[in-house]
Amino acid sequence: MRINTPEQASPAITPGSPKALDAWRVGQVLSATVIETAAQGAITLRINNTLIQAQSQLPVSPGQQLSLQVTDAGKQTVLKVIESAVPTDPLTQALRVALPRQAALPPLLANLAWLSAPPEKAQASPLSPAMTQLASQLFNNLASAASAATARGLKDALYNSGLFLESKLAHPGQEQQSLPSDFKAGLLRLLAGLHAEGARGQNSSGQPSATQPPPLRGSPLQAQPAVSASLPAQSSSGAVAELMHQTESALARLQLNQLASLATAEHPAPLWTLELPLRHNGRADLLHMRIEQDQAAKKPGAQNASWTVSLGLDLDGLGPMHARITLAGERVSATLWAERGDTVALLDKHINELHNGLTRAGLKTDTLRCQQGEPPRATANATITNEIALVDLTA
User: Fold this and answer.
1) CATH for 294-380?
2) Do domains 2-86 and 294-380 have the same CATH topology?
């Protein structure tokens, strides 16, 4: 792997300064993260918080971690990839790549909601009409809270949450009809459009699209006065870079949920972990869900398989809430948690409505209760159940 000199660096890259390269010594081992790959073996690495343009024919992908050793620090710096003595498990590698790149979805959802607002109500978009339309389509394809309140609507929303995209692609036919509404497919379309938009911006200006990270990363675009259509092209490029970063982070987070949902030898029973964005009053509320079958149901002779659904949400006026519903045969029990005392009182007041609704559905209720606080940590958040060492420490 050869390091390009700053004069050879692509315009899209902020090259490392000569002083940064001069500090390297032959034999030194460096930790690098692959940021971007391009044609003809050009790759971008982040080494010690510096972006470096390199040339290599090795098959690498964005987010991949590399251990590099300096073999030549002369006129042109040469780095050698140090191979690991123990082959990396694909699942472990996928987790290592996705974990540092993932981020919470609300900032991205806030941007999508703002970009999809009617023109007469929204500020001028810093993005091109084509990109604004892509973002608007992604937001409008989200299931509405009203439709998710029905059995069929919730089933469709779960199926299009992005968790099952690869399964759809592996089974062409009727599943392909749902691809336009699939959340992960929409994120991938948006990311492809943003990359194309960024490339056009570089070609037209001849300057890097973003020479430094955009300010207030993670904040909604509407909360950044500096990003406005009235500003020069650099502000527009910053908006593209910001939305690109949020989209990549959302895809990494979705991938983590997919990895957490894989069956393992320790947990062969079905389990799905997901975050379901729902449109409501011009914005997107996020519903955290974990659906799992009791492992005992997989044992020979087991009857009345038990299923548990854990929910987490935060609504205006009610605050953070959690629920755990267990269904065994035709018997159901539910526990609701709320952090605010007034919300607990409101839930208690309407608990009979839940009981009556379950009864009308033909179910028998065992326990329905509300309490203040949070659920036990094991059920409050989705966790990756695989026992995998993501960091190796040697003393």
Assistant:
1) 3.30.750.140
2) no
Q: Would you say the pTM of this structure is higher than 0.70?
A: no
Write the burial class of residue 368 (CB in 10 Å: 0-12 exposed, 13-18 middle, 19+ buried).
middle
Q: With contact defined as beta carbons under 8 Å apart, do 374 and 337 qualify?
A: yes
DSSP-assigned letters across all residues of 265-312: SS--S-EEEEEEEEEETTEEEEEEEEEEE-GGGGSTT--S-EEEEEEE
Q: What are 374's two structure tokens?
A: 């949070």
- Rounded to 10 deg, the angle between the 106-115 and 233-260 helix axes is 130
Domain ranges (residues) in the chain? 2-86, 106-260, 294-380
Class of domain 2-86: mainly beta
The pLDDT profile of the chain, 395 residues, written as one tens digit per residue, is 666 544 333 333 334 455 667 788 888 888 888 888 887 778 888 888 788 888 887 778 888 888 888 888 777 888 888 864 445 677 777 887 888 889 889 889 988 988 887 765 445 677 888 888 999 999 999 999 999 989 899 999 999 999 999 988 887 776 667 788 999 999 999 999 988 887 776 555 544 433 333 332 333 333 232 233 222 233 677 888 888 889 999 999 999 999 888 877 777 777 899 999 999 888 888 999 999 988 665 555 556 678 999 999 888 788 899 999 999 988 999 999 999 999 999 999 999 999 999 999 899 999 999 999 998 875 434 444 444 444 444 43
State how far the alpha carbon of 164 is from the alpha carbons of 100, 352, 369, in Å.
23, 36, 33
For tokens 């629920």, name the residue: 323
Per the rule left: phi > 0, alpha: psi between -120 and 50, beta: everything else, 332 is beta
- Residue that is written with structure tokens 């904040």 in the block: 219
